[in-house]
Amino acid sequence: MKIFLCRLSQPIFIWKLLTIKENNLRETEAYVYGSLLVISSFANAILYNWYIFNLRNLSMKVRIACSSLIYRKSLKLNKNNISKTATGQIVNLLSNDLSRFDKLFLQIHYLWAAPLEALIILCLLYVMLDPKGTLGISLFFAFIPIQLYMGKKYSDFRLETAIKTDERVRLINEILSGIQVIKMYTWEKIFIKFTNSIRKQEIRYIRKTSYLKALQNAFNKFLSKGALFLCVMVYIFTGNRLQSQYVFVIKSFYNLLQNNMTTNFPEAIKNIAEASVSVKRIEQFLLYNEIKHNKIQEMQPKKGVYLEKISARWSSAVSDTLSEISFEATLGQLVTIVGTVGSGKTSLINVILHELPLAKGRINIAGNISYASQEPWLFGGTIKQNILFGQPLDDVKYEEVVNVCALNHDFELLPYGDNSIVGDRGITLSGGQKARINLARAVYRNADIYLLDDPLSAVDASVGKQLFNECILNYLKNKCVVLVTHQLQYLKKSDIIYLLKNGKIIASGNYEHIRNCGEDFARLLNKEVEYEDNSTDNAMNQKLLNQKEEKQFYENRSFGTIPLKVYFSYLLSGGWCASSVIVIMFIVSQSLLSGVDYFESYW
């Protein structure tokens, strides 16, 4: 409101100064009005920047809050919804959709402020000058339905653009994930064709949005000049003598309307339309089903995992992935899950983690869970940070975990030990080293239940034996350990063994009981187990010694100012002809706008 008063008072002070002789004002009053004009302009600048500063803070807080919601939601999605959501879609939500809120909060108040200011100016013109001076404002109001229609089209184009952008980002993500296969089969041109096809569809909607924006800008330039022209012509043709104070006061009021009614008001409609699409997309993502955590039931005598006749299936599966599974693992037990590939071992772990929703049955998890996934993963940071994973550092426990996970020798070979950086632009590790770091991360966490999904398959026989004896049997002896494995030599030391086939438990019990239960287990025992060639660990150890230490700290960067050739290459990417036409049209457009103001003052 204070900004309104400062803006609206300026044309009034100009009118007072231009009518000094007619109103017989004294010289001191002229100085007063001149000073008030300067003060109002200064106050308007201060208040406007303070207003923008607060709105930017508000939009930043909303954006951070929504980013946090999306991050938290992505961590809570169950497996069925994760399969529907690509990483590129989440990145698009965070980078593209949330950026709409920045512009929205800067412009949204003009949706009511601009029409209100137009009504106030309408009343001032009617009182101060002549009813004919209000005719030009009708032109502004006449274009409001057109601006609303453009806002609706903005919303439609924004939605179509977002859909095509998601498709393109998803395809690019899949191409990068499988680039080795694409290169091996020389499918580059095929996938380039797919990518270009989707990009052309995306550009088509972007081009339509740009045309609409250009049309809106043309209306904005026309409205203020057209409204002034209409007022002056009506004033002259009704037999009045044109006076300078009349023209300049109307121009001052219409300049205020030009900023709000022809620029900020349409921008507010456009930003609201685009933000509404972003809100719907974010809402759709936030409404995806989350992992359901069952409460711990104190009736259980021991902490552990209790499944009672559960059945579960993936969203893409026709039949149940797991059927009529009853499972129990308590503190102090080593429970081993075995079975052929595709028998449902990892799916059973996902049920315990609440990643795979139940179709029927009951599940009770009594205690905290730590999980080592089948595919080891590392994030960009030091090895120590990967093992701690946000947990506070306990030096004694950390040394014990590193020792039982057979990482001491690897730390001696690495340039900076456990402070060596892994991930992008970091030290390259073998599959076995990644698996041991992955296992150490799970073991370091203080939990009651440890779910270990085939952690021994990526290491050699001697290291696997050390991990099983020192880590699983000894260090975790007082914990509930659920081990998925293909390596049957460790089954003799298991307390309970569950044999899975086609999503069903066909046998359970200790080693001797399972061994005598039937021919399925005998066939499984006699089947040759293929171990991954762990010689890569030894080869990688030698490779680590030869890596340059500078690799951790230096990245490819350029310093100083941006060279002119970068700007020229950017312009030339659009072609000489198109770039030249755009520059010429910009110069001609600005010259015509400046010429209008010059001719107006001369006239």
Automatic annotation (TrEMBL):
<keyword id="KW-1133">Transmembrane helix</keyword>
<dbReference type="InterPro" id="IPR017871">
    <property type="entry name" value="ABC_transporter-like_CS"/>
</dbReference>
<keyword id="KW-0812">Transmembrane</keyword>
<dbReference type="InterPro" id="IPR044746">
    <property type="entry name" value="ABCC_6TM_D1"/>
</dbReference>
<dbReference type="InterPro" id="IPR011527">
    <property type="entry name" value="ABC1_TM_dom"/>
</dbReference>
<feature type="transmembrane region" description="Helical">
    <location>
        <begin position="135"/>
        <end position="151"/>
    </location>
</feature>
<protein>
    <submittedName>
        <fullName>ABC tran domain containing protein</fullName>
    </submittedName>
</protein>
<feature type="domain" description="ABC transporter">
    <location>
        <begin position="305"/>
        <end position="527"/>
    </location>
</feature>
<dbReference type="InterPro" id="IPR036640">
    <property type="entry name" value="ABC1_TM_sf"/>
</dbReference>
<feature type="transmembrane region" description="Helical">
    <location>
        <begin position="222"/>
        <end position="238"/>
    </location>
</feature>
<dbReference type="InterPro" id="IPR027417">
    <property type="entry name" value="P-loop_NTPase"/>
</dbReference>
<dbReference type="GO" id="GO:0016020">
    <property type="term" value="C:membrane"/>
</dbReference>
<dbReference type="GO" id="GO:0005524">
    <property type="term" value="F:ATP binding"/>
</dbReference>
<keyword id="KW-0472">Membrane</keyword>
<dbReference type="GO" id="GO:0016887">
    <property type="term" value="F:ATP hydrolysis activity"/>
</dbReference>
<dbReference type="Pfam" id="PF00664">
    <property type="entry name" value="ABC_membrane"/>
</dbReference>
<feature type="transmembrane region" description="Helical">
    <location>
        <begin position="110"/>
        <end position="129"/>
    </location>
</feature>
<dbReference type="InterPro" id="IPR003593">
    <property type="entry name" value="AAA+_ATPase"/>
</dbReference>
<dbReference type="InterPro" id="IPR050173">
    <property type="entry name" value="ABC_transporter_C-like"/>
</dbReference>
<feature type="transmembrane region" description="Helical">
    <location>
        <begin position="30"/>
        <end position="53"/>
    </location>
</feature>
<keyword id="KW-0547">Nucleotide-binding</keyword>
<dbReference type="InterPro" id="IPR003439">
    <property type="entry name" value="ABC_transporter-like_ATP-bd"/>
</dbReference>
<keyword id="KW-0067">ATP-binding</keyword>
<dbReference type="GO" id="GO:0140359">
    <property type="term" value="F:ABC-type transporter activity"/>
</dbReference>
<keyword id="KW-0813">Transport</keyword>
<dbReference type="Pfam" id="PF00005">
    <property type="entry name" value="ABC_tran"/>
</dbReference>
<feature type="transmembrane region" description="Helical">
    <location>
        <begin position="567"/>
        <end position="588"/>
    </location>
</feature>
<feature type="domain" description="ABC transmembrane type-1">
    <location>
        <begin position="5"/>
        <end position="240"/>
    </location>
</feature>
